[in-house]
Structures are given as structure tokens and as C-alpha cells.
Amino acid sequence: MTSLPKAFVVGHPIAHSRSPLIHGHWLAAHGLPGRYERVDVAPEAFPAFLRDFPERGFVGGNVTIPHKEAAFRGAALLTPRAERIGAVNTLSLDAAGRLHGDNTDAPGFLAHLDASLGADWPRTTGTDAGRAVLVLGAGGAARAILVGLLERGLPHLRVANRTAARAEALRALDPARIEAVAWAHLPALTGGTGLLVNTTSLGMAGAGALDLDLSGLPPEAAVADIVYVPLETPLLAAARARGLRAVDGLGMLLHQAVPGFARWFGVTPHVTPELRALVVADLEGRR
Ligand code: NAP
After folding, report:
1. How many CB atoms lie within 10 A of CB 106?
2. 3-state secondary structure of 252
3. Which residue's C-alpha comes closest to atom 13 of ligand 1?
4. In a domain, 1, yes or no
5. What is the residue range of 178's domain?
6. Do 10 and 91 lie in a common domain?
7. What is the pLDDT of residues 8-37, one digit of tens each?
8. Residue 253 beta carbon below 6 angstroms from any ligand 1 atom
9. DSSP state of 44
10. Number of domains the chain is built from
11. How do 99-102 and 90-93 pair as beta strands?
């Protein structure tokens, strides 16, 4: 094994990943002798990759589409959060060389929400009592975000999804606090919503539009979108036009990277305006 710590981001495809830019920036900023590389692995080759990466000199890495569930199944040890989410996006090796799996999407989402709205956002949005957090979508990201919101103690979560059965299935995370609601009922539910979170791919460049009338949201409500291409999605633009607080998806991507970097390279990095500007420039094709 090489003495230079090396981490990966593994996915299929992987060329679009901004993770090398983020981790490369932190390595340079901290003057650390490490590397972070993209690795394209097809699904059928992923179990072998999990077995062999230490021999290739990697100390761990990030896992993205389509491997997050396979990484969950392949990890020898899981954090309680990864266990609950059923997906792993951060891999490392423990002192005994066992494969350790974590999911940092949930803390990444919440860290960005705290940084954008202030950590007392449950109070300022009214979601600590009375108003609901309304989550649109029921895929992997929705599941991670719901787990994070449950851990944070939010009392009332609503989920709406195009495929209603998937929203209904997410209720099993905590049936007392999660309500599945019909997509068609969304307009009637905005008035009781303190935080609206889009976790669908709607609004993403090349995907369909998320057509939702925000006029019923209370003035204290906030709107978060985890789509970050474009950075200002039509949903966020509509929220800002109404004078509501809007939280973009890029911060989640930046914050979810922190715990992995700390494990692989031994330094806890910070999400700075400089890092954000670097990734924004990349997204806008200015680099
Ligand atoms: P996923 O598991 O494939 O789930 C996709 C979700 O979008 C499902 O709820 C799906 O509904 C819904 N959807 C897709 N097309 C739709 C349409 N035409 N109309 C209505 N709903 C539609 O994906 P994921 O991993 O959860 O990711 C979802 C989005 O979040 C992606 O855009 C991804 O890039 C983004 N993301 C961002 C971050 C970040 O760090 N900012 C992290 C993770 C993911 P059905 O169940 O009905 O198919």
C-alpha cells in the first residue's frame, strides 16, 4: 500500500462528480499530502471493488449512484444512521481493516439548513410545533433527509410522491411522526407547511418542472431544494419572489463531504465561501 492517503468517489457514470474538486480544494488548503480520485465501476464489478480497494492504496471514499445500496450491503460495520437509511455514501476502514459505512447526506442537509436559516429554524419556521415539514419525493435522498429530520426531533413530517406507495413505505421510519399525503392534495397543504423540501429530480436541468403554487405558504416558511443544477431552481426562484427564505442544494453536497475527509485525511475541513465559489464556478462552466 502506498504511504500517500488516497480516497475515491465511486459511481457509474462518475465524470460529472464535483467531489474531486471539493476534496482537492481541502487537501490543498490544509497542505495535506493526499489524493482523491474518481473511479468508474459498473454495478457487476462493485462487490470486487469493495474487496480490492485497500490493495489499490485507497483508505476509503464516497459512493454515489448507483452503488449506495450495494455499499450498504457490503459494509461490515454501519453507523446507526446508515442502518436506518439503508444506504451508504461514505466508506472507511477501521483499525482492524473492516469496512465501515456511513450516510452523511442527512447531516449534510441539516448542516446546510442550519448555516442558511440559523440553527433555530424549527422555531422560526414554526415546524417545532404546529406546522409540518413537507418533503416532496420518496427516493434515496428523501429517506436520508427524513431520517435527519426525525433525529432532529421535528414532530410532524409529511411526504408526497408521484408514486404514492413509495411515500407510504417511508412512514415505517416513524409512523407517529410521518404522514404520507397525496400529490394532488399539495395545494391545500401549503398553508400548514413551515418548511418545504424538494427531493425529487424535478427542476433539475433536463428534467421536468416542479409545478407547485407557493402562494399558500406562510410568510415565515422556508423552501429548500436539493437539486443544484441549476443552482437557482425555478422552485427557489418562486420562493424568493414571494419573499420566502430559500435554501439551495449545493450546500448539502459540500457539507456531506466533511465527515469523510476528516476520516480519511485526519483533519476536519470547513465549508467556506471560497469552496462554494469554486464549485459554483465549475457548475457555471467558468473553470
Ligand atoms: P431517486 O431515488 O431516483 O428518487 C427520485 C425521486 O424523484 C422519486 O421520488 C421520484 O418519484 C421523483 N421523480 C422523478 N421524476 C419525477 C417526475 N417526472 N415527476 C414527479 N416526481 C418525479 O433519486 P435520489 O437519489 O433521491 O435524488 C433525487 C434528487 O436529489 C436528484 O436530483 C439528485 O441529484 C438530488 N440529490 C442532491 C444531493 C445534494 O447533495 N444536493 C444529494 C442527493 C441527491 P417516483 O418515486 O414516483 O419515481
Report:
1. 26
2. helix
3. 200
4. no
5. 107-251
6. yes
7. 999 999 999 999 999 999 999 999 999 999
8. yes
9. G
10. 2
11. antiparallel
